[in-house]
Each structure stands twice: as C-alpha cells, then as structure tokens.
Amino acid sequence: MSVEEPHWFHRWEGELAPLDHLRIAELLSAAFASTSHHFRDARSWAGARPELRLGARVGEAVVAHAAVLRRFVRVGETDQLVAEVGLVAVHPDAQGNGLGAQLLARVEDRLRLLGVPFGLLNTDRTTATFYARSGWSVLTGVASRWADPDYPWRHADLRDPLLVLPVAAPLTRWPGGDVVDRNGGVL
C-alpha cells in the first residue's frame, strides 16, 4: 500500500455509517491478525464500544485508527475518570511513515478538548516504548482487569504494560493501587 497524504478524521460513534465500520474493521483485522475474529462482519470494536474514533484515510482505506471511551476505572479505593484509548493501529503496509506518531498527537489533542484528567491504554511490551516517546507513562507493577470479551462471565487479568497519559492532571495525581479495574470490557 503506497501511503499518500492521509485525510485525518474524528467522528463520534453514532456518526459512523456501516461502510465506515467495514473500513475500520478491515484495518483492525490486518493490524491485529491474531485477534482478527473480533472484527468479522464489519465489527469495528473488540470489547466495549468506543464513543469517538480518530483516524486517517488514504483513498477509501482507513490506514490509521484509534478509539476513545470516557469511563471511570477503579484504582485501589478510588474511582478515576479516564479516556480509555484502544484499537490503536496503523496498517502494516503503512507503518514506518510517522502515521502512528501523528495519530497519537491527534489523540492527545482530542483528549485535551474532552477535558479528561488522564488517558489510559494497554499495550504489549514490544510497543510500550512507542507510546512512551509520545508522552505516555508505564504504570510499573500495575495490572488491569476487565470482562473478557470472549467469555464475559469471567474477568481477564493482564500484566502487559498499562500506560497513562497526563492530560488535564499531572501524573502525580494518578491514584495508587496495583490493579486498574475497568468494571466492564476494554476497547
């Protein structure tokens, strides 16, 4: 896939047409091949439905995407408002062109407009440094818990890196605790 100058977009979930979901699902299937079963039949989400989508198109194809969902998570004894960021992807054929960094900058700008204190996301160890270069901080020794989308009657506990982006509050205001409980699904 040749990468022309992308057209950037942000849309509320209710503004997406069926074709938008299909194009996003195609990207997510390509980017997350091991979990592509979540994106069958133009389903453009894996667990919880996001409220906001950001991304880039080249022609008809979506080549970069991130989803945002404002929610409260439980950290220790504190209910903390966050903007959960997930389904962050750049099409494998378009990687290495700076689209990921541009996408994260646009996500941060949008989180600032939403006025949330923190962004929150899970990733794997191979991509944690990519997010750190964009201002996200790894919560060392902190796990996350949520309802497993494949088996919603049980919880999934994840020890992969959990990252926080200070948006309208400094990182020092993040509550202490060794588990972030989403009390529901993840993006």
Automatic annotation (TrEMBL):
InterPro entries attached to this UniProt entry: Acyl_CoA_acyltransferase (IPR016181), GNAT_dom (IPR000182), NodA (IPR003484), Nodulation_prot_NodA_CS (IPR020567)
Alphabetized UniProt keyword annotations: Cytoplasm, Transferase
Coiled-coil blocks: none
Record-annotated N-acetyltransferase domain positions: 11-163
Pfam families: NodA
Domain of life: Bacteria
Gene3D superfamilies cross-referenced by the UniProt entry: 3.40.630.30
The keyword Transcription appears for this protein: no
Similarity comment: family membership: Belongs to the NodA family.
Protein name: Nodulation protein A
Annotated organism of origin: Actinoalloteichus caeruleus DSM 43889
